[in-house]
Design brief:
By secondary structure, the chain is α+β, with helices and mostly antiparallel strands. The protein contains 4 helices and 5 strands, in the order E-E-H-H-E-E-H-E-H.
Length: about 130
């Protein structure tokens, strides 16, 4: 079973906004509310507004003031609420970078760099 939440994605004041439904106690604690905003903003890369309803089902919004004001005048029923997946990105497999292939060994290049006068030290033979 994948994790999901109730929310709505829509443009508000020219900004892509994700409204996330939370429990009222989350909005009552500003630090907790900010943690939710940060977590959802990092995951969904958009402006986050939290919404909770009281016992009378009156919505309270938490987020940027201009967006909260705009949402406050919208009829609650026209917001496109839906269950949305909170898919965690798969962690990248850690591995060392693969170095580029070394150029093929060319003895002509090596002997040219040594000056053609002497063969490379590993190619010298000793007479026994």
């Amino acid at each position: 079973m994948s994790a999901s939440f109730t929310g709505a994605a829509l443009p508000v004041c020219g900004v892509d906004v994700l409204i996330v439904v939370v429990q009222p106690w989350i909005l009552a604690d500003p630090h907790e509310a900010q943690l939710y905003v940060i977590a959802f903003a990092l995951r969904f890369d958009r402006t986050i507004v939290l919404m909770a309803q009281d016992d009378r089902r009156v919505p309270t919004y938490y987020g940027p003031a201009p967006i909260v004001r705009a949402l406050g005048v919208l009829p609650f029923e026209i917001i496109p609420w839906q269950r949305m997946p909170y898919q965690l990105p798969r962690p990248r497999a850690w591995q060392l970078p693969i170095p580029p292939e070394p150029p093929p060994y060319d003895s002509r290049v090596l002997s040219a760099s040594l000056g053609d006068s002497d063969p490379p030290p590993c190619a010298r033979t000793t007479a026994s």
